[in-house]
């Protein structure tokens, strides 16, 4: 797996374009700056197969429609947030005086879904609620990488003061789902730099006692 990270929008959200040797690509959390994301896809000469959302907060969905309409690809999201794309209160944009929406997802994931195969990509779906009720982390075992959305950051964890957030649930998600991954696993999060599970176990101040 190869990936390109684009940090976009006013809150510096990380959008990922991941691709393989077959030039197949998956776009994770196209948050803003749709033209820039599309131009990067074109420059990489890859073929997007799908968009995956770790969750549906406004800073992760702002370029969904631009990318989806350009490439005519499906959008995957947990069903607990199926209406967040069109609800500015739930997706948090109205909290910041904005009106950011996207069209509904074509594919809704459930708590029973454990794996997702798209082209030659095989994702393990890790349910990591707490930052939001339907937060998902996508684990690529063969690549040794997890896309954690806003659950786990380098040296921090996701905020839980927005609609549906719960810090106790988030800490349990991190402990039971993410910290159980191999320690060398690269954590590619929704904001900030890359890290590893080992680094967060050793030094993340929010994870003391786990």
Automatic annotation (TrEMBL):
Protein's UniProt keywords contain Oxidoreductase: no
Keyword Transcription regulation belongs to the record: no
SMART domains hit by this protein: Lactamase_B (SM00849)
Region forming the signal peptide: none
Xref: InterPro entries: MBL_Glyoxalase_II, Metallo-B-lactamas, RibonucZ/Hydroxyglut_hydro
Keyword annotations: Hydrolase, Metal-binding, Zinc
Residue intervals of the Metallo-beta-lactamase domain: 12-191
Cofactor field: Zn(2+)
Superkingdom classification of source: Bacteria
Protein name as annotated: MBL fold metallo-hydrolase
């Amino acid at each position: 797996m190869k990936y390109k990270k684009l940090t976009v929008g006013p809150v510096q959200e990380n959008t990922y374009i991941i691709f393989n040797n077959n030039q197949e690509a998956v776009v994770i959390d196209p948050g803003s700056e749709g033209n820039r994301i599309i131009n990067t896809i074109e420059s990489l000469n890859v073929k997007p197969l799908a968009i995956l959302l770790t969750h549906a907060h406004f800073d992760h969905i702002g370029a969904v429609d631009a990318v989806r309409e350009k490439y005519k690809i499906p959008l995957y999201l947990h069903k607990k947030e199926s209406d967040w794309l069109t609800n500015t209160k739930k997706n948090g944009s109205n909290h910041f005086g904005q009106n950011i929406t996207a069209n509904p997802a074509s594919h809704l994931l459930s708590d029973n879904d454990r794996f997702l195969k798209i082209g030659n990509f095989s994702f393990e779906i890790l349910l990591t609620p707490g930052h939001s009720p339907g937060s998902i982390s996508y684990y690529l075992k063969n690549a040794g990488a997890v896309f954690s959305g806003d659950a786990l950051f380098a040296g921090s964890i996701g905020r839980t003061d927005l609609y549906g957030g719960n810090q106790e649930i988030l800490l349990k998600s991190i402990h039971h789902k993410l910290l159980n991954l191999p320690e060398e696993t690269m954590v590619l999060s929704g904001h900030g730099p890359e890290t590893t599970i080992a680094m967060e176990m050793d030094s993340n101040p929010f994870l003391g006692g786990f």
